Amino acid sequence: MIQWQSVLIKAIREEGFRIPADVSVCGFDDTPVANYISPSLTSVHVSIPELGEMAIKTVFGSIAKTY
User: What is the full DSSP assignment across the chain?
Assistant: First the structure.
């Protein structure tokens, strides 16, 4: 499976930009492919269950304030 990071880095290079000198690329999904891309990709871990819980609390909180 091709990761979006690989495609993005390829497209940036094809346009003549240098990574990281001209453009920085980072991920948010802590994908394992980040360790194998050159240059290595900065990636932030996001806990999907925690993110979902926060979203639900926010929606329910907004609903409760409405009524």
Answer: ---HHHHHHHHHHHTT--TTTT---EESS--GGGGTSSSPPEE----HHHHHHHHHHHHHHHHHHH-
